[in-house]
Amino acid sequence: MKIFEMIARMGHEQVVFCSDPSSDYRSIIVIHSTALGPAVGGTRFWNYSSEEEAVVDALRLARGMTYKNAVAGLPFGGGKSVIIGDNRTTDREKIFRAHGRFIETLGGRYIAGEDVGTSTTDIGYASLETRHVGGLEGKSGDPSIMTAHGVFHAIRASAHHRWGSDDLSGMTIAIQGCGHVGYNLAKEMHRAGAKLIVTDIDDESVNRVVTEFGAARVEPEAIYGVEADIFAPCALGGIINDETIPQLKVEIVAGAANNQLLEERHGLMLEERGILYAPDYVANAGGVINGTCIELLGWDASRTHEKVRRIYDTMLEVFEVARESGIPTSEAADRLAERRLKEGLDGKG
């Protein structure tokens, strides 16, 4: 892996490899940009198949956070950290206290929260070693609820753009991933009158959604080919690719997972198939908006929730840029992010 070439190409500022053998802690902390402010992004705990896979994931996730925060109009840059290992371990305090110590060495350039495989309790352990964390219990709390709420508004905006109405009653939505965000999205879609088809590699998570919301379940590999109006990826990234796109029988892809497109060209492939794509980092910004606005900017809940609701308007703006410029929605989102990054930098100057 030519890591310096990759960093230069993607514009990262810093990559830190961290190890504490006494706690079996291995992580990668990535700062993509601090141009607009400290780099904000969650901590992912995952059993990667290789160190190279972990590095690539961390680099992509950190860049996505820069664009997510820029599009959301937040005065923060983008970063991410990944901890390599089995996130089912019960010996978590030592791991996350080690993580906190390494975050502290960055002097506030990176502010961590929770992500896949981590919880508010884990971030609480890290906070014993550093104040540069967010999403703590008793403050903004579990980000998954507001992430799902933002995705719900992104889906409504997508429906309005495609069908002229944001009424989701009677619509069929296929949700991939029934973890914290997927569960809360299923709850909101159920309340809106949508029909649910769901899958997850964890049987308990699927059973909960089936029992509580009357969802139909399918095996993980079958979710791509189900007939539905909307496909909502809410698990890991890279699942919109050469293999899955031909299987899709939906009109909209809008979900919570980060880096849904395996490669940039897959945004164009969706458009060529007539499938509307709601760019992931626009749709799933609710969690970071909630955490940063309450904990770092001192906003009250009502003002913060209104900003999350405006994901609806931002998504419509992305669709309009795509239409006017004749480009895929994924490229339109990047243009909007880069424009706001430039505006922010000009304002600093």
Short description:
The protein is an alpha/beta fold. The chain is 46% helix and 16% strand.
Overall radius of gyration:
19 Å
Number of helices: 13
Content of β-strand = 15-25%
What's the CATH C level of the largest domain? Alpha Beta
Could you state the oligomeric state of the chains shown?
A: single chain
Order of H and E elements: HEEEHEHEHHEHEHEEEHEHHHHH
CATH architecture of the largest domain: 3-Layer(aba) Sandwich
SS class: alpha/beta
Q: How widely separated are the two ends?
A: 37 Å
Mind sketching the topology for me?
Elements lengths: L2 H8 L3 E7 L4 E9 L5 E8 L4 H21 L5 E8 L7 H13 L5 E5 L5 H8 L16 H20 L8 E5 L3 H12 L3 E5 L3 H11 L2 E2 L12 E4 L18 E2 L11 H8 L3 E2 L2 H4 L2 H11 L4 H9 L1 H15 L3 H20 L1
Parallel strand pairs: 3-4, 3-5, 6-7, 6-9, 7-8, 9-10, 10-11
Antiparallel strand pairs: 1-2, 2-4
Helix pairs in contact: 2-13, 3-4, 5-6, 5-10, 5-12, 6-7, 10-11, 12-13
Keywords:
alpha/beta, Rossmann fold, six-stranded parallel sheet, 13 helices
Structure description:
The chain has 349 residues and is of the alpha/beta class. The protein folds into 2 domains: 3-61 and 78-127, Rossmann fold, CATH 3.40.50; 144-284 and 314-337, Rossmann fold (3-Layer(aba) Sandwich), CATH 3.40.50.720. It is 46% helix and 16% strand. It has a 6-stranded parallel sheet, with helices on both faces. The protein has a 5-stranded mixed sheet with strand order 1-2-4-3-5, with helices on both faces. The two termini are 37 Å apart. The mean pLDDT is 95.
